[in-house]
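re: ur question from yesterday

yeah so i grabbed the chain u mentioned. its 183 aa long if i counted rite. heres the sequnce exactly as i have it in my notes:
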Amino acid sequence: MTQNPVGRIIHINGWPGTGKLTVGRLLAKRLGARLIDNHTLLNPAEALFSRSDPLHASLRGQIRHAVFDHAARADPAESFVFTDALSDDADDAATFSWYSDLAAARGADLVAILFDCAPEENARRLVAPGRAEALKLTDTATLQRLRANHKLLRGLAERTVEIDTTGFSPEQTTVRILADIGV
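ran it thru and got these structure tokens back, copy pasting raw so excuse formatting
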């Protein structure tokens, strides 16, 4: 296992079903980092409230605030891998600022990893066993609308690595990320 790189925050962004959590787990293990996937922040609100209920957004915000506050105070040698599905709108850009602010508060390097894959492969992965039980998106029509109406958020970190995961296994994707970030 590789030693924790001091001051590293890795943010993996991509459409649902592109392999963020699977690769995030592998990457965190290889780096000795903490993994905070978007469902860690989302699922408590999903379990209690529908997305249309204002309490859903309120709870998500409170959870995010508590997690990021504590991450900012964690051991400075600790590295973090985050996953998210952020698109090119103002709300998601504001969400990304949480990662930038965390990196600044910790004096950490922020590396943005952007995942995409071919739409057909993305739809195939979206309906994989286990996704529904994890409260993950499984509706291919919703994915198609997201992909048709939005672009993935990019360009907000000083360093961004873009990877098309279509032809890569999670292990191959992890190795590619480690090479791209110099580990």
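noticed a couple things. The mean pLDDT is 92. also The beta strands are 8-14, 34-36, 80-84, 109-116, 159-164.
anyway ttyl
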